[in-house]
Specification:
By secondary structure, this protein is mostly helical. Helices cover 81% and strands 0% of the residues. The protein is globular, with a radius of gyration of 17 Å.
């Protein structure tokens, strides 16, 4: 499994190099970057599959995590097409598709946790996480527009819903770590927090007018791939 993680990291680094160099030069370069990104995404799925092959007790939960990772791969492809078609009519379609795909991925992770932990996922904890996610999601989107100059435009509702899903899953991961007084959920919680931070950076790029900022691009993808590798590694605890 360590080898799979190392390969996944190498593929992610290769993609980031292609994204900030070749992809900036032409549409063809952007398409090439999309395929390299897809290969990098296959890397973190391979980490999850390797964990299953090494043996897990709850195969159903593990398979839902794999499904979530696959939705992540699809989201990667779709969002990279958004970059290829930047400032063209197709851009909005690909951005929406990316949000939907990643949102479905988070749903898969939630199902996996419910299958894995059962009644350990208490309703009071879920209620607290829902409240936290609703408040923080609205604050991030509407506060971002007012105080940070973000321009969500037609994507205000999309952004609130997606932010809610991501913040809820991050809060749930942390909440379970605390309530269970165990490190079992730690890898997942770290993965979701990194995912959240990645999307905060991505928000600054997409809606803050910094879509071609190479530094933010590298930070975004470094956080994202670290997140997905953590989530894939979480399967080993199942």
């Amino acid at each position: 499994m360590v080898i799979a993680i190392i390969v996944s990291c190498v593929l992610a680094i290769v993609f980031m190099g292609v994204r900030v160099t070749l992809a900036e030069k032409s549409t063809t370069g952007g398409v090439i970057a999309m395929f390299v990104k897809t290969l990098a995404s296959v890397g973190f799925i391979a980490v999850g599959v390797t964990a299953i092959c090494l043996g897990v007790e709850n195969i159903k939960a593990a398979m839902f995590v794999i499904c979530g990772l696959v939705f992540g791969l699809i989201g990667d492809m779709v969002l990279d097409l958004k970059v290829v078609y930047l400032k063209q009519p197709e851009e909005d379609v690909y951005l929406t598709g990316g949000m939907v795909s990643f949102g479905l991925g988070h749903v898969m992770y939630l199902v996996a946790i419910c299958l894995l932990l059962g009644k350990t996922v208490s309703l009071p904890l879920v209620g607290i996480c829902v409240a936290v996610a609703a408040v923080v999601a609205c604050a991030m989107v509407f506060g971002g527009e007012k105080f940070m100059g973000f321009k969500f435009g037609k994507f205000v509702i999309h952004s609130v819903i997606y932010a809610f899903c991501l913040i809820f899953m991050s809060a749930l991961g942390v909440g379970l770590c605390i309530s269970m007084k165990s490190t079992r959920m730690l890898t997942f919680a770290i993965g979701m927090i990194l995912f959240l931070l990645s999307d905060v950076v991505l928000t600054s790029m997409y809606f803050g007018g910094r879509a071609k900022d190479k530094t933010l691009c590298i930070i975004n993808h470094a956080l994202y791939y670290a997140a997905q590798i953590c989530i894939a590694s979480f399967i080993a605890t199942m």
